[in-house]
Amino acid sequence: MKRFMLLTVLFVFGFFLIACESENNATNGENDTPETLIYLTLEQLSEFDGLEGRDAYIAIDGKIYDVTNSSRWVNGAHNGYQAGQDLTAAINDISPHGTGVLSRMDLIGEIVEE
What we know:
Blueprint: H1 2-27, E1 38-40, H2 42-45, E2 57-60, E3 63-66, E4 77-78, E5 81-82, H3 88-93, E6 106-111
Parallel strand pairs: 1-6
Antiparallel strand pairs: 2-3, 3-6, 4-5
């Protein structure tokens, strides 16, 4: 009987640990905020335009997204816009999809004042 109770306690404790780990993974998914954000000024952001092999980053509402590997941002360009810029007005006022697509991009940082 003691052995059964011990196994039951161990099973419940193990299940609890698995549940906690699953909850942590759900809040730290691939497209969620990484553990370490980068902080760039708009001038520094302009260096990440996706041209000549450089990474392609865009800023929306003060957040920086990595679009380097997006098939929609070939050489850092998408529908007449070049990466390396704050595209908040374009996505809010012009874009047919709006900010809904941002969840598919990796949030990597924030814009800071110069």
